[in-house]
TrEMBL record:
Pfam family, one: UbiA
GO molecular function annotations of the record: protoheme IX farnesyltransferase activity
Protein name: Protoheme IX farnesyltransferase
Catalytic activity line of the entry: heme b + (2E,6E)-farnesyl diphosphate + H2O = Fe(II)-heme o + diphosphate
Signal peptide: none
InterPro entries: Protohaem_IX_farnesylTrfase (IPR006369), UbiA_prenyltransferase (IPR000537), UbiA_prenylTrfase_CS (IPR030470), UbiA_sf (IPR044878)
Pathway noted in the entry: Porphyrin-containing compound metabolism; heme O biosynthesis; heme O from protoheme: step 1/1
Transmembrane parts of this sequence: 32-51, 57-77, 98-118, 124-145, 152-174, 180-200, 226-243, 249-269, 281-303
PROSITE patterns: UBIA
Gene: ctaB
Record flagged with keyword Transmembrane helix: yes
Gene3D superfamilies recorded: UbiA prenyltransferase
Job of this protein: Converts heme B (protoheme IX) to heme O by substitution of the vinyl group on carbon 2 of heme B porphyrin ring with a hydroxyethyl farnesyl side group.
């Protein structure tokens, strides 16, 4: 797409669309959505009580669609900075394949649909939590925190940490201490995960004017904060066993994964590499860590239900 066409698309939301179905799927941020689906499903499975399998499927799908809606609203609002970042410049809105108006309408319609469906098929507490999650990500994080403070990802991480709480509420109708522990694990995981990315993508954020921690506080401070948060991540990972809703087997696995997380963070802190290989390694391991933690919880939840 030419620069002239790109500027016309960003400045004229009513310009004609060149969108395909794949472009609208991209607006949903499917990789992020997959993590939301997984953690929300784990929350559903761990919660006391049970939904009919069909209703449980619809609830999970509603949470996924809500996450996708938030992603679409994020891409609508962030089209200007997405256009100058290598990681995001190929997205449909800055490329001009989806117009800003289309992305906005798509996100709003899916938001309303997902919240109403979850309320009708599960309960209105879960629906309210989903609505709050979408609002927090699209408005509080995207429109305010992201461009105003280097703590953007710390506070904004609450949106990504809420899906297991929503899933728990969908099954049980309540928010419990256990669901808040699941929230805490993801909330504390988010800063070291994204700051590791920011270390080797700092040029992107600088060009976009996004005040990520490495660009504001510097690499040294960011590495120290990554290490501190990594210790908290390791501690939070074993809390399900400490609080009695996961087994010692899970606790041992979580402890081993936490030690690995801290070790990767220690390399980020102590190894000076201009290519940021330790940061890239931590970023990759952090994805594995979160998946493994919730997979272990899911296995225990399934085993518990089968043995009941």
């Amino acid at each position: 797409m030419s620069v002239v066409h790109e500027e016309r698309v960003l400045n004229d939301p009513a310009s004609l669309s060149e969108a395909t179905a794949g472009d609208f799927v991209t607006l949903l941020k499917p990789r992020v959505m997959s993590l939301v689906i997984f953690t929300a499903f784990v929350g559903q499975m761990l919660a006391p009580g049970a939904l009919h399998p069909f209703l449980a499927f619809v609830a999970t799908l509603s949470i996924a669609v809500g996450a996708g809606a938030a992603g679409a609203l994020n891409m609508w609002y962030d089209a200007d900075i997405d256009a100058v970042m290598s990681r995001t410049s190929k997205r449909p809105v800055p490329q001009g394949r989806v117009t800003p108006n289309e992305a906005l309408a798509f996100g709003l319609v899916l938001s309303a649909f997902s919240v109403m469906t979850l309320g009708l098929m599960a309960n209105w507490l879960a629906a309210a939590l989903l609505a709050f999650t979408i609002f927090f990500y699209a408005v509080i994080y995207t429109m305010w925190l992201k461009r105003s403070t280097p703590q953007n990802i710390v506070i904004g991480g609450a949106a990504g940490a809420l899906p297991p709480v929503v899933g728990w509420a969908a099954t049980s109708g309540v928010v419990s201490v256990e669901s808040l522990v699941l929230f805490l694990i993801i909330f504390l995981w988010t800063p070291p995960h994204f700051w590791a990315l920011a270390l080797f993508k700092s040029g992107d954020y600088e060009r976009a004017g996004v005040p990520m921690m490495p660009n504001v506080a510097g690499e040294a401070s960011t590495k120290k904060q990554i290490f501190a948060y990594s210790i908290l991540v390791a501690i939070s990972g074993v809390l399900p066993t400490v609080l009695g809703f996961a087994s010692l087997f899970y606790g041992a696995a979580a402890a081993a994964l936490g030690i690995g997380f801290v070790w990767y963070a220690w390399r980020v802190l102590t190894v000076d590499d201009p290519k940021m290989k330790p940061a890239k390694a931590l970023f990759g391991f952090s994805v594995l860590y979160l998946f493994a933690i919730f997979a272990a919880l899911l296995v225990e939840a399934i085993a518990g239900r089968l043995g009941a």
